[in-house]
DNA sequence: TATTGTTATACTCTATAACTATA
DNA sequence: TATAGTTATAGAGTATAACAATA
């Protein structure tokens, strides 16, 4: 049941992201940086369930677009501190608002009590460490 | 929230499927055939959200393993009627039982009311035509 | 020697376009 | 001419391994 739902939700996000000039991974990265920045790209990649080599092109694009900054950690010049810029925060909020507007429309299909429980359950399950699910 | 949950659930299914000698798509096809067989492979592919060319190798494997039959429709010799064999049904039930046992364990994290509402909401949303979600 | 970020390479998946056989 | 199934090819996405800089 989750698979077709996710497929449809991704399809719904696509035109919104395109309108904002963002890739799916770009949005995922910005979402991960929302709130707290991150000390290493490796940690960022692991957090979003991607390989460290996979996000480099994404970070390049986001940096070129002025949506985030990569600054070397003076204490360990190997590491690159990654943080959103103000423009990145604005962009992320705008995209998120567009996406959530559509999600609201979809969630309106549920009766209010189920909707609350659904989101609560989803939050609980998605926050579990993957090993708790794989066993 | 759905993306990481699905990733973890797929990771959990992988060893179970491997133990039964089934691929992910193989399991999806068997699940789709559970209950009613299908008159054409194209319809089957569309039903599971795949391209018709993508499931051919899967159908070959399942047929070679004796889990399904492909018989030509006498009324239209282009079409191939696809149906599970008894062994296919047994295999599907066995795999499904293993997978659901793990899902039960995960769902036990939710309190019973949320769990019921979660499954009900998921059934509602996953049954929507994709266009209802994309808008 | 180990780790961070990067690049290069290979591999897997998937989509698209031909091809056949039937209609 | 159109459709069902199949095959072949190309493209995207992903993982793996090698590399340079720093620790």
Q: Name the biggest interface.
A: A-B, 36 and 36 residues
CATH uppermost class of chain A? Mainly Alpha
Low-confidence regions of chain A:
none
The helix-and-strand class of chain A reads: mainly alpha
Largest sheet of chain A: 2 strands, antiparallel
CATH architecture of chain A: Orthogonal Bundle
CATH overall fold name of chain A: Arc Repressor Mutant, subunit A
What is this structure, in a nutshell?
Chain A is mostly helical and 135 residues long. The first copy, chain A, has helices spanning 2-19, 24-33, 41-47, 56-64, 86-107, 112-126, 130-134, and strands at 68-73, 76-84. In chain A, strands 1-2 form a two-stranded antiparallel ribbon.
Walk me through the structure.
The structure is a homodimer of 135-residue chains. Chain A is mainly alpha-helical. The first copy, chain A, has a single domain (2-127), classed as Winged helix-like DNA-binding domain superfamily/Winged helix DNA-binding domain (Arc Repressor Mutant, subunit A, Orthogonal Bundle), CATH 1.10.10. Chain A has helices at residues 2-19, 24-33, 41-47, 56-64, 86-107, 112-126, 130-134, and strands at 68-73, 76-84. The first copy, chain A, has a two-stranded antiparallel ribbon with strand order 1-2. In chain A, α1 crosses α5 (86-107). At the A-B interface, α1, α5, α6 and α7 of A face α1, α5, α6 and α7 of B. The first copy, chain A, binds a DNA duplex (23 and 23 nucleotides) through residues 40-42, 50-54, 56, 76-80.
